[in-house]
Predict the structure.
Amino acid sequence: WSIVAIGGGWTVAGLGMGLATASGSLAVMTLSEPAQIGRNTGSLNLSEALGNALFIGLAGAIYANLRHQVVPAETFGWVFVAAAAVALASVASALRVGPVVEPARA
């Protein structure tokens, strides 16, 4: 793999994560009552932080358990499989929200 391909892949991934984070916050604020926006966005940030911490722990556990059993490429492959499974579960749960339409405000 060339450094350009790897850098390009990480750049696209980073852009996608940045767009998703902003879109998620915007959706929460749009769907919240004005008096609940602070509470709901705070809950969103907390759940994102806890989810990140849990997945980092899971990825570390996978790596620690496989690093002496299989070749390094396969170890990282299983970590990426776990990441893909988490991403698919996230997409499935996000589909429950449906389209977010900003209500007309008087």
Summary: The mean pLDDT is 87. The chain is about 75% helix and 0% strand. The helical segments are 3-31, 37-66, 72-94.
